[in-house]
Structure formats: structure tokens, C-alpha cells
Amino acid sequence: MTATPITEVLEWHDATLVKPDSDMTVLCWIDDDFFCGYWDDSIPGWIACESGGSVIGVTHWATPGGPHGDHFRDGTKMLEPAELRALADRIDHEQLWRWAGMDHDKMTPEQRDRHMAGVHLRRYASDRGNMLEQLKEGAGYMRGMRLERANRGTDQRGCGDGAWHSAINAESDRRRAAGEELPRMMYVAKTISDEVPRMVLLFQYERERGMPDSYKMCAHDPRPATPLKDNHLRCALGQECRKCPHLAAIDRSERMTPEAKDEAKAWTCATHFLLESRPDVHCEQILFDKSDDAFNARLVESFAAEYDDGSLDDGN
User: Fold this and answer.
1) 38, 62 contact by CB (below 8 A)
2) Angle made by CA atoms 123, 285, 252, in degrees to the nearest 5
3) Tens-digit pLDDT profile for residues 183-218
4) How far lies 30's CA from each of 36, 37, 50, 158, 208, in Å?
5) Measuring CA to CA, how many Å separate 39 from each of 26, 29, 75, 137, 293?
6) Which candidate, 152, 151, 115, 124, places its Cα nearest to that of 24?
7) Is 84 helix (H, G, I), strand (E, B) or coil?
8) Largest CA distance in the chain
9) I want to staple 118 with a disulfide (CB 3.0 to 4.6 A). Which of 72, 80, 88, 125 is the partner?
10) HSE-up of 269 (CA within 13 Å, CB side)?
11) Is the peptide bond prior to 64 cis by the omega test (within 30 degrees of 0)?
12) In contact, 241 and 287? CB cutoff 8 Å
């Protein structure tokens, strides 16, 4: 009995015009040959999966679905997100993703491969699940990709990625060579693009659940949790958000939904911080709570314990 071959139409993308999502494995075309690789925004450049080395000269790339693709002529459907996550669990049966980052060097090469395969498969399942949910709501997609960038952060909304950072670094190098002032404002803009979505979620978290009352560095930390009495949000200007008159004015609105208030408060807080700060201000985040203080205290304690050779006791 001869199996019926499955035919798939590949859509090749011009690599000079569009790149795949960073770290997404694709089929790459170069010099009348092909290989599996991915685009790394942090370099930026193409990386071959087999060798892990950089590749120059990729002209086109495609994303074959394989025999389980959802666009084949025989009607075969792509695996659902839950099935993809189950497959990732079978590949990473040791739950290596739970290992602390400092222990990754203890993995064998085979464990590293399974760990990264599981991580990327879960990311793909998450992205596909988000896409399917948004399609139900009528969101616009082109070739299966949402028409707004989704990053790999917890909120899936920020747009501050490696390519943007590289563009800013290039401009900084140009200005430095020309003896001009560095574009610090551009770095702040990139930070704000990621910070505002995070702030929206923090305001939502505080509204729906209240801020956490304890802090623990991670699940592997043997030390007891640090109590966070009367935990609350505060901004980089030192103002408690619950006492801010600008945010209180938004809360008094009877026409805005709670979700709209969360977003309005995030943009108001970010704008207030920028207007009250120096034009060349450096910031990593605008909203804080007491868990940030606990994290910094634990970090200082850890560094002091690791690097203190006794000279600190002498005031050195």
C-alpha cells in the first residue's frame, strides 16, 4: 500500500524586506540550498540551528507547517495549543524549565536541547493560543501574525525589542563619532514603550487583588519570605499612587470602565514622570512596590556575602 503524499505550498519571504520573529525556527534559503535557522535580533543576524554559527547571505525564508500544518490540501489541522504544551511536557519530562538560571551550566548537552525545545514549543503554543483567541474577537491578522508586535514578556504587549535597541545604539555610535550629544531620549522612549503596558497590569493587579503581602526571591530560595506590610504602588517621583491627586481624578470618573482607568492612570503617571524629570533622565521603571525594595536588599546582601573578604569591616 502506497501512502498518499501530502503537498504543502511554501510562501518564501524576502529576507531583505521582512524578518521572522526573533528565535523562531524557519527554513532559510541561501546559494541554491536551504537550512534550518533563526533570526537573532540581538546580533542582528541569521543563526544556523545545526552549528549555532552566524550565516551571511540568506535571501529568503519560509515557515513550513509539516504534515500537521493547518493549511494543507488534505484538510489536516495544526495541533491545538493544549496539545503543543503537552508535547513540550513530554520533551522536557524533567521540567528543566524550573531549574534556576544559575544551575543551567549543570545540564548535559542533551538536557539543554530538550530544555530549549520545550521552552520554544511552549512559547509557540502561547503565541498561537493568543492568536486564536484574538481571531475569535475579530482582531486583524496578516499571514497569521497579529498587526501589532507581541514581545516575549509576561504582558505580551511591549514593543521594546532588540532591533529597536540596535537602531538606537547605531545612532549613539554615529553621534559619538561626530562629537554630538548622545540620544538619551531615544533610550527613554524605548523603556517607556515597555513600562506603560507593565504599569497597566500593575494598576489592574492592585485593583483586583491588592499588592502582595510577602516577597520571596524565587521558589529555590531557602530563606523565609519577607513580609511586606501595607504594600502599595509608588512612582519614581516618590509619590504613593493611592495618594496621587491626578490618579484620584481618574478614579472618580463614573463613565470610564475599570480597565480604561488602569490604562489612563498608566499613561498619566508616565507622562507626569517625564515632564517632571530632566530631559536626559535615565529610568528602568516608573512604578515600584515594596517587593522591589526587598529584591534590592536581598541582592545587596547576596553580593556582600559573596565578595566581602573582610576588608569591608575595616571600612575599605
Assistant:
1) no
2) 100
3) 888 888 888 888 888 898 899 889 988 888 888 877
4) 11, 11, 15, 33, 52
5) 9, 13, 30, 30, 37
6) 124
7) helix
8) 84
9) 88
10) 34
11) no
12) yes
In the chain, % of residues over pLDDT 70: 75
For residue 40, the surrounding DSSP H or E stretch is strand 33-40
What residues contact 4, with CB distance under 8 A and at least 6 apart?
A: 74
**pTM value?**
0.50
- Measure the CA angle with vertex 104, ends 103 and 106; round to 5°: 75
**Helix pair angle (184-208, 258-276), 10° resolution:** 140
307 by Cβ neighbours in 10 Å (0-12 / 13-18 / 19+) ranks as exposed
Ramachandran area for residue 71 (φ above 0: left; ψ -120 to 50: alpha; else beta) = alpha
* Conformation bin of residue 315: beta by default, left when phi > 0, alpha when psi is -120 to 50: left
